[in-house]
Task: structure prediction
Amino acid sequence: MTDPILAGPDCTTMIEVRAGVDQVDRELIALLARRFAYMDAAARIKPARDAVRDEGRKAQVVSNAITAAEAAGLPADVIADLWDALVEASIAYELKAFDRRG
Result:
């Protein structure tokens, strides 16, 4: 039986911290898989390759993340950088998915 994963504030050892981080990372990967499935759907639905990049939508997604980060007490600048990288990676993935359509 494995030890329960503690909430961050309840951790008293680095073993507990690392176990929590590893669990969160697994959860993030599962969420990213869900997000990228939407990129597959977008690549299937969009009529043309040049429709994949939408700077207005990118700005909206990053802005939404910043707003949510601020509400959660997280550093907005760090979240903005993470989401910019996430959206760029998603666009690159979607372009490849679009090209596979044939």
Summary: The chain has one domain: 11-100. The helical segments are 14-45, 55-71, 76-100. The longest helix spans residues 14-45. The chain has a mean pLDDT of 96.
